[in-house]
Amino acid sequence: MGYNDEVHKKLWIYVVVFGYNIFYNFNSKIDKESLMIVYKEPNKKLPEELLFIEIIKKAFNDAFAIGNASDPNQILAKSQAKNWFDLSCKGFRETCEHAGSEPEYVLKLYQNLEYNYNSGKITKDELKFGISRLDKKI
Most C-beta atoms within 10 A of its C-beta, which of 44, 45, 56, 73? Predict the structure, then answer.
């Protein structure tokens, strides 16, 4: 059973915006499509966004040289990845936006991990774990 033009229902939707709970009271005609547009669960990413998040995670792994140490291209990949984390890089900005995040935020995540790793505050295993969970932060 779906909604049609004759159905008039009162609908309460719980939405989380910027960490605040907001309740919306919709007392109007609705259909299934408009409900899908109005309500998006927090932290639910579209498949396209998840794909771009994986690209960002790969860049993090390359920038910190996490992976196959015997790979002769690892030094080049590390250099290219570090250069990619730059707000003036169009590819970086577009990738972050397609991932559903702000480039400034992703750059700050990178800089924080870089600082904590280089200063010895986190180990390589902790760094790997943090990168593996970037999809929870982005």
Answer: 56
Among 61, 40, 38, residue whose Cα is nearest residue 49: 40
Cβ-count burial of 131 within 10 angstroms (0-12 exposed, 13-18 middle, 19+ buried)? buried
38 and 60 belong to one structural domain = no
For the chain, the domain total comes to 2
pLDDT digits (tens, 9 = 90+) for 66-110: 876 667 788 888 999 999 999 999 999 999 999 999 999 999 999
Give the Cα-Cα-Cα angle 132, 36, 12 (nearest 5 degrees).
105
Give the whole-angstrom CA distance, residue 4 versus residue 32.
8
Q: How far apart are CA 98 and CA 50, in angstroms?
A: 9
Q: How far apart are CA 38 and CA 31, in angstroms?
A: 11
Predicted TM-score (pTM) of the model is 0.67
